[in-house]
Amino acid sequence: MAATLQPSSLHPRDLGRTATVGLRTRKLRTALSALGIMIGIAAMVGVLGLSESSKSELLAQLDRLGTNLLTVEAGTGIGIGTGELPEEAAGMIAQIGPVETTTVVSAVDDADVYRTDYIPEGQTGGISVQAVDLTLLDTLAGSVADGQWFDAATGAYPTTVLGSVAAERLGVTEVTGTEQVWLGNQWFTVIGILEEFELAPDLDRAAMVGLRAATDYLGDDGVPTRILVRVDPDQVDAVMGVMAATANPENPEEVEVARPTDALEAKEAADDALTALFLGLGAVALLVGGVGIANVMVISVLERRAEIGLRRALGATKRHIASQFLGEALLLSGIGGIGGVLAGVAVTTAYARIRGWSALVPPIAIGGGIAAALVIGVVAGLYPAIRAARMSPTEALRTAG
Amino acid sequence: MPSEPVLSLHNVFKEYPTTPVVRALRGVSFAVNSGELVAVVGPSGSGKSTLLHIMGTLDRPTSGEVTVAGFQVSQLSDKDMSSLRAHHIGFVFQQFHLLSGFTALDNVADGLLYTGLPLRTRREMAEVALRRAGMGHRLDHVATKLSGGERQRVATARALIGNPSIVLADEPTGNLDSKTSDAIVELIEELNESGTTIVVITHNPEIAEHFPRSVGLRDGQIEYDTSWKDVA
Question: Which residues of B touch A323 (CB under 8 A)?
């Protein structure tokens, strides 16, 4: 053979153009099959984004509240003594080196609080009376919603500061300075209402009085029911280890030591399990979307036999035909993937805004979302592409009509 | 007359392995020289389509030798056959086979899609080809907006665009009314006069009468070839 045969070749830009032929001529079908992938990717990106945002919110919360708060309480249960801590427990705990501050809370069991003296006894609305140290607000990183916290003077007189829920139940909406509640059979003036305590929700349902006032006006014995302790953040575990023995050397087993932030972390861990479940559901949606694309591509190959035959007649190799259909599947899933990432980010942003969090979508979710869509596209497009390439040109032209 | 053969078939057989075995071509031999205009005429079932596919290297013969533009098809791989079609063979189909959403210009430019030429060059060449086919005034019209005759002109321009060694037209007038059909035959003659080698496959002996040479096909064998008379 004298002459050499110039190989048939397809310019990369033309490959892109041929891959869009089917998409441009069947727009509705393109949109619907891309939607399948989009839903799957949006679900996965959204779940990852929400989980990340909520985690970052928790970290910010822990940062604000500090993870170095410990609570020491008298244990309750069968065979455990009086459910009280020794009187000197707070002083003993303060002796532990890394302890920064201690705050005593003493439940005033004999006193109840009512809106007025006309309310029948027993209708307490679940509000307890707690005698507290002046340092409580700082120790719990709490804040005042209205009015003020105790000072040395008000803490010694019949005044009370209401937790957020207690204030609502008693119907005290603002602090006027003259508002009074019927507490322990006498009038106490409301001087403040607190914001919610994130670390001690039970105090939200309490009317708090100063320790001195509790002793002087309510006859409280001042025995601590709970001691709140701030410790050196690096020594938390070490302090936890010796806390029980220090608080009650005689019966250390009667003392319960806890870290309230652990509860928040446990809640987050439970959320993690849900995240895994939703991710699984997203993956299923993605798989279904992939099957949808494969289905559409198989139909497309059958419908476009004439086009395949024509392209073979124009000099397309099997590889050119395969890459055209594979490219088309990739484009479909790519469009779905990008749409899904955008939708996922939008959902995360909207939800985070509603919850007052800062929206955070991990970059790996964005990259992974698009990559997953493309992988699905390749897998879904491979069989139809091979089928199109294997179609004999004469068969394609003959059956095309 | 030029005498160099651009297409030659030597004792070509084609059998389809169906039950019973279909023998579509039985020992077909003929050659087409450069610059010729040949009609292959035969009733349906005579093996015309099979012959077109084999001449166009869309299919291989069961036995026998086919040479196109100096290349022996039996020595070519599937990929080489694609290359041969991309650079040396133009097709015109009865059903036009235009891409519906595309303009006349882009449909014709696709005739060189698999030669690796950039789109701009192909479009320039497409415009020339369309003007040759009398479609210079319809460059930007979408294929679906064209009449049957216009579509066949576009399809013909697509076959011509790369100046192929040979153009194979499969019933080019099969889907057209008689008036349009005459115009297409006229176009084919004009193109041949300007140097294009063309083989027209048709079942219609009237069309074949227009052409300088016709080859009659029946039951997979050549019944007559008007060039034999010349030899005699």
Answer: none
Q: For A291-315, how does the pLDDT look when each residue is reduced to its tens digit (9 = 90+)?
A: 999 999 999 999 999 999 999 999 9
User: Are A336 and A34 in contact, with CB atoms under 8 Å apart?
Assistant: yes
- Residue B123 sits in a domain whose CATH number is 3.40.50.300
In angstroms, what separates the C-alpha of A387 from chain B's closest C-alpha?
16
Peptide bond into A224 cis (omega under 30): no
Whether A6 maps to a domain, the answer reads no
- Whether residue A111 sits in one domain with residue A29: no
Tell me: the pLDDT tens digits for A326-369? 999 999 999 999 999 999 999 999 999 998 888 888 899 899 99
The backbone region for B216, taken as left when phi is positive above 0, alpha when psi lies in -120 to 50, beta otherwise, is beta
What number of C-beta contacts closer than 8 Å exist between A and B? 112
Helix H or strand E encompassing A56: helix A27-65
Residue A1 in any domain: the answer is no
**Residue A1: its pLDDT value, please?**
45
pLDDT for A262 beyond 90: no
Is the pLDDT at B159 greater than 80, yes or no?
Answer: yes
pTM: 0.76
Only one residue has tokens 């049957």, namely B148
Please check whether residues A332 and A240 belong to one and the same domain. no
Domain that holds residue A330: 12-62+265-399
Q: For A157-226, give the DSSP string.
A: SSEEEE-HHHHHHHT--S--S--EEEETTEEEEEEEEEPPPSS-GGGGGEEEEEHHHHHHHH------SE
pLDDT at A48 over 80: yes
Mean pLDDT of B25-35: 94
Per-residue burial over A22-48, b if 16 or more Cβ lie within 10 Å, else e, is bbeebeeebeebbbbbbbbbbbbbbbb
The confidence score (pLDDT) of residue A325 equals: 95
Give the list of residues 6+ apart from residue A388 with CB closer than 8 angstroms, or none: A301, A304, A308, A321, A322, A324, A325
Question: Is the Cβ–Cβ distance between A230 and A69 less than 8 Å?
Answer: yes
- If asked whether residues A84 and A35 sit together in one domain, one would say no
A209 and A161 inside one domain: yes
Cβ–Cβ contacts within 10 Å for residue A176, how many?
A: 11
The fraction of chain A above a pLDDT of 70, given in percent, is: 97
* Cα–Cα distance measured from residue A63 to residue A68, given in angstroms and rounded to the nearest whole number: 10
Residues of B with CB below 8 A from A2's CB?
Answer: 70
- Number of structural domains, chain A? 2
- Residues A119-148 have pLDDT tens digits of 888 788 888 888 888 888 888 888 888 888
Do residue B82 and residue A392 have CB atoms under 8 angstroms apart? Answer: no
Among partner residues B78, B84, B101, which is closest to A318 by beta-carbon distance?
Answer: B78
